[in-house]
Specification:
Elements lengths: L11 H17 L4 E4 L5 E6 L3 E8 L2 E7 L1 E6 L2 E6 L2 E5 L3 E8 L6 E7 L2 H10 L15 E5 L4
Antiparallel strand pairs: 1-2, 2-9, 3-8, 4-7, 4-9, 5-6, 5-8, 7-10
């Protein structure tokens, strides 16, 4: 993607979209916990107080935090996912997770389950040039920034 196509993190449009997402998350996840939605593969999360580092098992999917912060620990790696970084997990992954939140600033997030087997099958059908045998083994967890700094 061309550099000029990126939207700066603090652009008025992005800030307004983040606020709208946070408002919707707060409205639909009105109490602490993980809440299923009408969509089978979508759940909402809310925490109004900090949660200590504890073991969790995340299934493949994408976690988007609208407010607050989550820290994932895998070995010596720390993955931050917050309003500026979302998390992609391509395999079931046991790791430790810590949540930063408060009553005034609850952690609000959405988790979208992704069937990466179906995605991989679709990608295999695409007409791409064959990849080199020297491709690095991919990780199973990816924190990604929303936009440029």
């Amino acid at each position: 993607m061309a550099q000029s196509a990126l939207i700066p993190r603090n652009s008025p449009e992005l800030l307004a979209a983040r606020q709208k997402m946070t408002d919707l998350l707060a409205q639909h996840a009105s109490r602490d916990g993980i809440h299923q939605t009408m969509l089978d593969d979508v759940s909402l999360m809310r925490a109004t107080h900090a949660l200590p580092r504890m073991p969790v098992l995340y299934e493949p999917g994408i976690v988007i935090v609208g407010q607050g912060r989550k820290l994932g620990y895998l070995g010596d790696q720390v993955y931050t996912y917050d309003a500026h970084n979302y998390l992609v997990l391509s395999v079931p992954l046991p790791f430790e997770c810590k949540t930063e939140a408060s009553p005034g600033q609850p952690m609000l997030a959405i988790k979208i389950h992704v069937n990466f087997g179906a995605v991989a099958e679709l990608l295999m059908k695409l007409d791409e040039p064959h990849r080199s045998e020297n491709v690095a083994i991919p990780n199973g967890i990816f924190p990604r920034p929303w936009m440029e700094s």
